[in-house]
Amino acid sequence: MGFRLLSRALSLVFLIFAAARLGPELFGVLSFVLVTVELLAGVGDIGITRYGARELVRYWDRKEVLAGKILALQLITSLPFVLVGIPLLLVYSPTYPKSQLLLLGLLAFYLFSVIGATESVFTATQKFFYSAMFTFLGRLIYITFGMVMLATGGSVVLIMAGYLAAVVVEAVMRVTFVTRRITVFSFSFPLKELGRMLIATIPFAVVGMASIFSYRANLMILEFIKGDAAAGVFNMAFTLFTPFVWITVILSTTTFPGFTEIYIRDRQAARSNGWLWYRLTTLAGIPLALLVTLVATPLLSYFPAGYEDSAVILKILIWSIPLIFINVVDVNILQASDRQREAANGLVLGAIGTIVISFALIPSLGGAGAALAALGSMLIQQVYIHLQVQWHFMKRSVLPLLLRPVLGGAAMGAVDMVLLNVNVWLAAVSGLLVYMAVIFVTGAVRPSEIRSLVRG
Fold first, then answer.
1. Is residue 218 a contact partner of residue 367, using CB atoms and an 8 Å limit?
2. What share of the chain is helix, strand, coil (3-state, %, to 5)?
3. What gap in Å lies between CA 315 and CA 237, rounded to an integer?
4. How far apart, in whole angstroms, are the C-alpha atoms of residue 455 and residue 105?
5. Which pTM value belongs to this model?
6. 443, 408 in Cβ contact below 8 A?
7. What is the per-residue pLDDT across 98-141, written as a single tens digit (0 to 9) for each?
8. Strand, helix or coil at 81?
């Protein structure tokens, strides 16, 4: 988790520096291309990374065959996107530098299929340190090169070339480590097994694609309707929002194999483990949302002119964090208990909500409309997914756990309002301390529970 968060922190610094040097329009172009690669990677993965990790946990004695099938499927399914993407790029004919950026992005996307295959192996074996270290080193190469280009007046095309080079290095390091230290990628299996595996990954693929679209389709729509500058302003806010999302992504990845093992051994123990995670995640979201809402405007006042509207966008986006924290636990439970179709249905509803709300609000509200689309999408999917978990697995609602976090949030908000006119940073720190005091006084969390989860 430390390596992953450090990678994200470095990326945050780099993107803030890029936003300041490039301005909203060029930063919007770069953001658009990076998001396009991210969307394609989510679609091209077709859920193999997540499905492969679960199957490797269950059938480790067949790891060579499974690892080979995972890599073969990743490479085969990603290739059509490249073969279709290049002709579409020629037909679309975007102007410089977007055309060059998209071409480099397509090449980087294909390499993500190799990275995804190795990630299945790393996740199944719980070698998160090495996985995160290789990601960190690749990110460090990209950021270092990008910083030099920005400082010396280099073009965004050169920055994207550095991104591609970093992906190549990360893929090589990962494959070398996996084949020498964990398992080989064997291709000695019947081709019809690939077909069966492809069908089995469909619910996982839907979850992956819908999750990416829920987060990023609004930026794509905003760019097409309002242009590159509006996309740059929105992505500045999303860049500051992303570290909080990545906390939940890392939490989901690192706890998934462990929860799967517990579920296989003892379902009642899995219910107790899930309930403990609910207790902690319900406590984390509200103070983060309040804190960021309070400091968004003074924080973004340090940025260059043109990003003023990013503060409003960030204030809207951050309120999806309490929902995302609970969503992480819900999706893990559904996928580990073979209820991945229910998770997929909820995320599809969320993705549809993002698209519909974006087209409804972006023409009149611009970036704020895109942020409301993200918040509305998360609310739609989380209501559906949590009801599925409650009906099929937990047999009780998480709502009673929200009472004390809401009480702590009310106390934190009251302190913030009183001290806001004195000093915004004093208000932020004081409000957070009051929240923590309310949580411990009311017994919402016990240190023994935290120790138990960390050890587990």
1. no
2. 90, 0, 10
3. 9
4. 40
5. 0.70
6. no
7. 788 888 888 888 888 788 778 877 877 778 888 888 988 998 89
8. helix
